[in-house]
Each structure stands twice: as C-alpha cells, then as structure tokens.
Design a protein that fits this description.
The protein is an alpha/beta fold and 399 residues long. It has 14 helices and 13 strands. Bound molecules: pyridoxal-5'-phosphate.
C-alpha cells in the first residue's frame, strides 16, 4: 500500500488538473513525424509540430545516426567530465560555426541549457532583467539564481526595459546586469526587439542572453537565427538554442565566447554532475542536420513561403491570428472549450491535428489552436487545411 498522504496528494493534484482541463488527452504518434502522420491510430495532416524544416526523418540524418551507433555504440556510459567523445566535440564546433560564435556547449535539452547557463552566470549582487513572457526554463533558471535581483519588463516594451535598466544601473557598483528574452515567443509567434535590446544593453552596461529555441533554423536568410535576422553579429553575448525543433533531433546548447564555454564546462551543475549528454546517434544526426541546413537554404525559404501563404489564408477567412510574425500562427478563439472543440472537430471530421492551448499556458479567454507549418507542407495540404478551417469556423460559430 502506498503512503496515504502521498496517495491523497496525487489524487488531489490529478483532480485539479482534470478540473481545469489541462491536457485532457495526450495524443499518441505511431511512426515518423511527417506532414502526414499516424496519430491515435489514424493518418492525419499535422499542422502543429516544431519540425520547421521537415528534417525529423531525413534519410541522411537517419543514416548518420546509424553510422555513429556503429562506430561509437548505443550509449556513452560516462559523463563528459570524465571522457568526452570526439563526436561530441565535433558537434559543438559545428554548432559554434552555425551560430557564428567562438564556441558552443551542448546540454541534454534546451530546458537544461537554460537552467545550466543562467544560474552560474549570475552571482550575488547581479541583476537579471527578464521579459514578461519568457519560457518556463528561463523563469526557472532565474529562480535558481540565488542572491540575484530579478526585474521583469513588460512584453516587448522597450521603455519599460529601459526603466528597469536604469533601476539596476543605480546599483551598478554591486554587480553586472543581464537582459534575457525568448527570441520568438512560443505561444504568439512574435519576435523580440533584439536591435533595441542590444542598444539598451550597450547604453546601460548590461549583457544579452537570447533564447533561440524557435528562431534557430527559422529566422535569418540561412536560418542561423535572430542575430542573422537583425545582423547583430558580435553584439549578443549568449545564444541558447534547442536541437529539438528545427534541427529535429534532441538536445540544447549555449553558444558564445571560448571563455563562456570554458567556464560553463566547469561551473554548470547539470554539466558537471550528470552523465546524460548527447548520445552518438544524436550527435551524428545533428551534425548532418546542420550540414543540410547550410547546403539547402531553400528549406528556410520554403518554410517562410508556406508561413506567409497559410497565415494570409487564415486571416482572409477572418480568423484572429494575433500578433504572429513567424511560422507559429495561433488561431485565437477565446474560451477554453471553443479551442478544444475546434481541435477536436479538425481531428475527428477533417483528419487534421492541431493542438489546443488554454489557461494556464496562455492567458484566460485567449485559448487557441496553435498552427505551425513547415517546409515540407505542400500547397495542396495547406489548401485542404484552410478549407477545413473555413468549415470548422462556420460550424462552431467562430467566423
Ligand atoms: C522558448 C523555449 N525555450 C526553451 C525550450 C526548451 O527546449 P527543449 O524542448 O529542448 O527542452 C523551449 C521548448 O519548448 C522553448 O520553446
């Protein structure tokens, strides 16, 4: 028999989640994550994956993963502080070059990369100035930074950021200040104002940490991210990224100076105290993905062509797509039930899978389905989806 207090705690928590209706049913994918995939036992058109460049099951990446397994084995059986595999070092060199930075350091996930970098970078007396809508992993990294002042500036509000910088500047003798922000905001698909952030950082003697999770592989002419998009090479101190979205493998990384890497390599607790790092198959596939992105810039172009076409289609139909500037295009419907109904209708009646998001992931009364097109969607598939949205909008009285 489990401990009674423990069992009661779980029972209450399960009841709370059921009551707010958070993630009532998690759909199951059986097979590859393509534009068409087998989800909960039927083939559907997928319009909500983070597989931006359509690389998740690229044959060359699959071969590179298999080759790496043949050479190095299935797993590692050692932490990187004890023995680092040459393939892990090679991947980091490739990532550094992809991000046009001196060095890069990998972590098992993007979430851990944020935790593992924010916390050692900030010391007692320092100030973190964090964007209101930052991702949970940034918020948690900030929370773990003990003795550090934390200020939150309003979403995309550069006046407020300046105010917060002035406040932190009063105590500048105490320590350093870091501005930290998502590059692309994951629920609304809008982009941070990096040029203004960099100017303000330079004016008020702060440094910039940018989370490129939804930007790497997406923004910039060749998909290198926000720094390429705004041509701000050399002016952003820390770029964090995930390998699990556009690059379509798994893992996270921090890119910056050689000193940043040397320091985190020794001071970042998830790095020092974990044996779980990128395995040979992931390293092989990821290096191949970076090679493909560099060799085939047309993937990024296709992603944006599809994005523009689909976004305009939704807007022309009269849907509210909010403030999106990227392939993340929400269809905001308001009440939680409405968003769920829309997602269910699209899956059951139209064979299209698009996930619904509601409170507490997004503010109350802004529930939505979050569409994400990728470079592999065909024009025909996008037209099928738009026609389905039109029928759904009318049937569910959203339009
Ligand atoms: C903005 C942002 N940062 C960090 C992460 C975490 O990355 P990962 O999925 O690799 O843990 C995510 C993923 O959802 C994200 O959207």
């Amino acid at each position: 028999m489990p401990n009674a207090k423990y069992a009661k705690f779980l029972e209450q928590k399960v009841a709370e989640f059921k009551q707010i209706g958070f993630a009532p049913h998690i759909r199951v994918l059986s097979g590859p994550n393509s534009t068409k995939a087998n989800i909960d036992g039927k083939e559907v058109l997928v319009l909500c994956a983070n597989n931006y460049l359509g690389l998740a099951n690229h044959p060359e990446m699959m071969k590179a993963a298999k080759d790496a397994v043949d050479k190095y084995g299935a797993g590692m059986g050692t932490g990187r502080m004890i023995m680092t595999y040459d393939i892990q070092n090679k991947l980091e060199e490739k990532l550094a070059s992809f991000k046009s930075s001196e060095a890069a350091l990998c972590f098992p996930t993007g979430y851990i990369a944020n935790l593992g970098a924010i916390w050692p970078l900030m010391a007692e007396g320092d100030t973190i100035i964090s964007e209101e809508l930052n991702h949970a992993s940034i918020i948690d990294g900030c929370r773990m930074s003990r003795g550090v002042d934390r200020l939150v500036y309003k979403h995309l509000d550069m006046k407020d950021l300046e105010e917060k910088l002035k406040t932190s500047a009063k105590d500048r003798s105490k320590g350093k200040s870091m501005i930290i922000s998502d590059a692309v905001f994951s629920m609304d698909g809008d982009i941070c104002k990096l040029p203004e952030m960099v100017e303000l950082a330079e004016k008020y003697d702060a440094f910039v940490f940018i989370d490129e999770a939804h930007a790497s592989g997406v923004l910039g002419k060749t998909g290198k991210g926000t720094v390429e998009h705004f041509n701000l090479y050399g002016r952003v101190e820390v770029q964090m990224g995930t390998l699990s979205k556009a690059i379509a493998t798994v893992g996270g990384y921090i890119a910056g100076s050689a000193d940043l890497k040397y320091y985190l390599n020794r001071a970042s607790r998830p790095y020092v105290f974990s044996t779980g790092f990128l395995d040979p198959a992931t390293c092989g596939a990821t290096m191949k993905a970076l090679e493909i992105i560099e060799k085939e810039p047309q993937r990024v172009q296709k992603l944006w062509e599809n994005t523009r076409y689909f976004k305009k289609g939704l807007e022309d139909l009269g849907f509210n797509t909010g403030v999106s500037q990227t392939p993340i295009t929400p269809v905001i419907v308001g009440p939680t039930d409405k968003a769920r109904e829309l997602s269910k209708y699209l899956y059951e009646e139209e064979n299209i899978y698009i996930q619904a998001f509601s409170y507490p992931v997004v503010p109350k009364e802004t529930a939505r389905v979050r569409t994400i097109v990728n470079a592999h969607h065909t024009r025909e598939q996008l037209d099928i989806a738009l026609a389905a949205f039109e029928r759904a909008g009318k049937k569910l009285k959203i339009l």
